[in-house]
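Contributing new records

If you add data, match the layout below exactly. Sequence lines come first and carry their own label; structure lines follow with theirs. Keep one chain per record. Anything else will be rejected by the validation script.
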Amino acid sequence: METIDPFGGNSFKVASLTAAINHLPNAYGSSRPLFSNIKRERVRTIIVEERNGILTLIQSQDLGGPANQAKKGKRKVRSFVIPHFPLDDVLLPSDYDGIRGFGTTALQARAELVTSRLETLKASHDITHEYLRMGAKKGLILDADGTVLYDLYQEFNITKQVVYFDLANANADVPTTCRQLKRQIEENLRGEIMREVVVDVSPEFMDALIKHKSVKEIFAATVKAAEITGGDPRERLVIGSVVFRENNGKHYPAEGDPVRFVAEGKGHAYPEGTMSSFFTAVAPADFNETANTLGLEYYAKMAPRKFDRGYDIHTQSNVLPMCARPGILIECNMGAKP
């Protein structure tokens, strides 16, 4: 007896499903615009050149082709492996047996079912990417279990800089500290441009900041502006030409307590509006169809299960957000300098 494959059409092939998952809306992405420069690679390893404290990707070449010419003053070349993040789901016959959406065909109903599963899977990839991007903004890219994937300061022998705001001290001059912070980042841009300096801070940092004597008048003006525009002053508090944003994002592991993107009392400063300081490297999936192709941010594929008892849905992303100038990443502390 011939088996009829209810998901055998072209709509459910790897190319179509991959296109579908790449066009679904992003569930998490406050840091996404900063890393919107997507570098699509054909291999899983990227080669990064460090010259005068600046990291530059080396263009890949065909085997046997002309080599890239090293620039004068080149110091070190390092390789980074783009991490692989797979996530699977199962579609059982009971999930799609006899389904048909209101006013739709059976094919449309099956497509909606698959899209719904892809949305759920993509949301997990999105929060993973945001977690990686937050790590890249801090100079410490972590895996989901907290293990270090890349410590950018250690990789490039850069000493992490910390700015202390001493917010418990009523006589501290916050606007002056902000200007000093901006100057440090400007010095480390090394010829790069920027639009503004942004600091992602914890809720505790934000609360102490808006209560400080040197900030009260600034915050009051920000609140008035927010009342007119309907905004939230915690999303854009400008002090000394530095933008503070409260970040209360969390990663919820399968076991254990939630992991905060920004630790209590901490902040992480970085420039926005740069040309090439931040990027996301993406590698192709490990499918026969995608070998040696330019990478995409997300991939999806379906395959029949053993004895035709439903379908396995496989998704994966192979991404590595990077900061090309780790010296521009400065940690902020709401406390006094030890």
